Amino acid sequence: MKITEHIDHRNGRTLFSFELLPPLKGENFESISQTIDPLIEFNPASIDVTYHREEIVYKEREDGLLEKRTVRKRPGTVGISAAIKFKYNIDVVPHLICGGFTREETENALIDLYFLGIHNLLLIRGDNPAGEKAFKPEPDGNHYALELVKQAMNMNRGIYLEDDIVNANPTGFCIGVAGYPEKHPEAPNMAADILHLKEKIEAGASYIVTQMFFDNAAFFRFEKACREAGINVPIIPGLKPLSTKSQLSALPKTFSIDLPEALFREADKCSTNHQIRELGVEWAIAQSRELIKAGVPVLHFYTMGKSDNIRKIAEAVF
C-alpha cells in the first residue's frame, strides 16, 4: 500500500512509522530485526530504510604514506528493504539520494525496487561527503532532489532514459520528500526553502517527512507556511528523542536545528546518558501527544538503530 493510501484510510487516527539504518558492512539481518521486533506490536504503517553514500577514508601504507580510499560502510538499502517487506509484510520506504548515483544507476535502482513490489520512496539530495564543503553530484547524476523526483515521475509515466525502449511500462511510485521546519542549512531563508519544497510537490511528490525538531512550535509554523504557499500534501513530523549527552552539541551542529531552552536546561542537569535517555523519552512523549492532538497523519521516529526508547514513547502514545 502506498503511504498516501495509509493516510487516506487512517480514519482520523495518527499512524506510527519509523526509520532505521542499514547495518554496517559485515553485519547480518539480525541487527535489523533487533530494532524492528520491539516495535511490531504498534502496527507501523511503514518502515523507512536510509541510504548512505560513499565515504573517504585514509589507510596507512607500509611505506608510511596515506592512501585515499572510497568505501560504503552501510550498503544494502534495496536488499534490506526487500527483506523487511517479505519477512514482516510491512510497507517499506527506501531512501534514494543524488550523491553517488548516475542517472542510469538511479533508474536501475528504481527498476529493482519496482520488480520487488516496493512502491514507496523518499527522495533526497543527500549530504556532502565527509570533509567536503560543497555537494558534488556524479557525472551525469542528479544535482538536486527536484531532479530525482522528476526522474522517478518520468518512470511513472513510462518515460525511461533510453527513448527507444519498446513497451516501456510505467511504474507506480509514491514519492515522499524532506521538509525542514527550521530551514534547510543551505537555504538563504525559510521562504526560499518552502518555494523549493513546493517545486518538488508540483513535480509529483505526494507527501513530506520533516527533519527532526524538538520544538513543536517550529513544526506548526512550518506547516502553516506550507499551507499558505499552496502545499496541500500530507506533512509528517519526524521525531528523534535525545539519547546521549554529546547530542546536545552534535545534533544542532550536524542538522542545523535548535534545542529549546527548557530541554537544554534539563539535559544539562543530567550526569549520565541513562538520565539523558529518560529525559529524551519524556520530551518526545510530550511532543507526540501535542502533535497527535493537532491531528498529524503520522508520527515518524528516527531510531538510529536503537528502538528501546522509541518503544517507551509508543507505549505511552499509541
Instruction: Give the strand order, joined by hyphens, for the main sheet.
Output: 1-2-5-6-7-8-9-10
Relative helix content: 25-40%
Uncertain regions spanning at least 5 consecutive residues = none
- Extended strand count: 10
Task: Report what the structure shows.
It is a single chain. This protein is of the alpha/beta class. It has a single domain, classed as Alpha-Beta Barrel (TIM Barrel), CATH 3.20.20.220. The protein has eleven helices and ten strands. An eight-stranded parallel β-barrel has the order 1-2-5-6-7-8-9-10, surrounded by four helices. β3 and β4 form a beta hairpin. α5 packs parallel to α6 and α10 packs parallel to α11. The radius of gyration is 20 Å and the shape is globular. The two termini are 21 Å apart. The model has no long low-confidence stretch (mean pLDDT 91).
